[in-house]
């Protein structure tokens, strides 16, 4: 197997991978889960960040969590969608990193998370990094390494 001797890739800045906050679909804790479900379905995403009015990250909410919260004893209870708040359904277990982190940390988080949230020093939400973007970059990187090794 070809030896990869440029471990510097792990020290790469994560800035180029960031999907900035203005392009990130999100909801607020006090929104109804009906609103969150609409945003999730319309955007096509499985899970999105929950940000408060000061744009601080409070949680993540997914379609699966919403559906789970309206399952009654014998039937699905869609009428509850308007009553239940995002804050009572969201998870607060979040894969989050500081914007100064390097690729190495984000890569290891991405094993178990389809996206990682990025914050600045003051805890303000900056955006997300998706696993698919990381894989696309690594795919290009290793193909370039292979091409160079053949030169
Ligand atoms: P992707 O790798 O593009 O398929 O995205 C993986 C997951 O990251 C999606 O299912 C969403 O949960 C999240 N995601 C990606 N892009 C966005 C976005 N612009 N806004 C909110 N969540 C996103």
TrEMBL record:
Q: Which domain of life is it from?
A: Bacteria
Q: Which CDD domains match?
A: CBS_pair_bac (cd04643)
Fetch the InterPro entries from UniProt: CBS_CbpB (IPR048125), CBS_dom (IPR000644), Diverse_CBS-Domain (IPR051257)
**Domain CBS: from-to ranges:** 18-79
Which of UniProt's keywords are assigned here? CBS domain
Do you know which Pfam families this protein is assigned to? CBS
Q: What is this protein called?
A: CBS domain-containing protein
Organism, per UniProt?
Evansella tamaricis
Lineage in the entry? Bacteria, Bacillati, Bacillota, Bacilli, Bacillales
């Amino acid at each position: 197997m070809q030896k990869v001797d440029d471990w510097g890739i792990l020290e790469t800045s994560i800035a180029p991978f960031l999907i900035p906050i203005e392009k990130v679909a999100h909801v607020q804790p006090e929104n109804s889960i009906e609103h969150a479900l609409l945003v999730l379905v319309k955007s096509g995403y499985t899970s999105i960040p929950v940000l408060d009015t000061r744009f601080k990250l409070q949680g993540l909410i997914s379609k699966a969590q919403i559906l789970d919260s309206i399952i009654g004893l014998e039937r699905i209870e869609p009428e509850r969608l308007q009553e239940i708040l995002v804050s009572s359904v969201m998870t607060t277990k979040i894969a989050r990193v500081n914007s100064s982190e390097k690729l190495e940390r984000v890569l290891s988080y991405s094993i178990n998370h389809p996206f990682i949230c990025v914050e600045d020093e003051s805890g303000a939400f900056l955006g997300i990094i998706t696993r698919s973007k990381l894989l696309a970059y690594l795919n290009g990187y290793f193909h370039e390494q292979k091409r160079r090794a053949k030169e």
